[in-house]
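FAQ

Q: What does a record look like?
A: Structure on top, sequence underneath. For example:
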């Protein structure tokens, strides 16, 4: 395994204009590569930020016909980088898409796919309501991407609230997690840093969390503040509200050192769950 590398998270403010989103993301990916990043991650909804439902379905395609994938595979090959496209809306039926991450190798080939397992169905204060499951098909598998530096566990946004997913990936060998996101502002202000640092600390893993940020064309507001966190829970790099790129130099051996110091991954025990009260 290679020893260390430079990672970058690209922060976007995607819209319903797929071509413009591809252009914006490509420009910032190039900026990240110019800054020496060998692993570059983009947020959830990289190529399309549209309301779940008919608007998203109308602009979504299956993998074979998606316009973003060939653009990003060609770019990864041109730049010679390993690229995580945080998520694309990939049509899987007449009524649903998958919210799917792609890891693309420096040869331009898709190496790994992950479909978001946990879907965002919530009602927030102020009248905001989301029903991702109405038009998105949830995934059913945890996934590790094999890289020259070790295994990286893939997740998307709302997944971060489900620690068992990350525990399973860490115990399968992941030294890092990706959490591409489009967090709402209220939940971002309250929980973004806490949840991401917790997933890093409890698993002794790096976290790469590229985010959408700002007020989008359809009026949706996202929190931004892309983060790169080390296995001790230290924030190595943080974005603000605007699109841009953050960088951090990553030594995977730090994950091994933290896990040796706090070997909790080896201490899980089976236990009886509380009985349901009637």
């Amino acid at each position: 395994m290679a020893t260390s590398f430079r990672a970058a998270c690209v922060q976007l403010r995607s819209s319903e204009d797929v071509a413009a989103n591809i252009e914006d993301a490509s420009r910032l990916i190039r900026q990240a590569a110019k800054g020496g990043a060998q692993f570059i991650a983009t947020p959830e909804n990289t190529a399309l930020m549209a309301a779940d439902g008919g608007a998203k379905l109308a602009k979504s395609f299956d993998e074979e016909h998606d316009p973003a994938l060939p653009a990003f595979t060609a770019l990864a090959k041109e730049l010679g980088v390993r690229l995580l496209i945080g998520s694309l809306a990939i049509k899987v039926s007449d009524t649903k898409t998958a919210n799917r991450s792609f890891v693309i190798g420096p040869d331009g080939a898709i190496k790994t796919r992950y479909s978001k397992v946990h879907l965002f169905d919530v009602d927030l204060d102020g009248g905001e309501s989301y029903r991702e499951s109405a038009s998105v098909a949830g995934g059913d598998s945890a996934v590790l991407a094999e890289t020259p530096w070790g295994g990286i566990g893939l997740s998307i946004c709302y997944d971060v609230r489900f620690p068992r997913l990350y525990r399973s990936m860490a115990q399968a060998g992941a030294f890092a997690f990706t959490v591409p996101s489009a967090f709402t502002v209220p939940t971002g202000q309250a929980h973004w840093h806490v949840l991401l640092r917790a997933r890093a600390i409890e698993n002794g893993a790096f976290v790469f969390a590229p985010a959408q940020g700002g007020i989008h064309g359809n009026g949706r507001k996202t929190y931004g503040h892309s983060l790169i966190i080390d296995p001790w829970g230290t924030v190595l790099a943080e974005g603000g509200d605007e699109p841009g790129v953050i960088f951090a130099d990553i030594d995977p051996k730090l994950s091994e050192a933290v896990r040796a110091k706090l070997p909790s991954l080896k201490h899980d025990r089976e236990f009886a769950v509380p009985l349901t009260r009637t």
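Q: Is there anything notable about this one?
A: The chain is about 25% helix and 30% strand.
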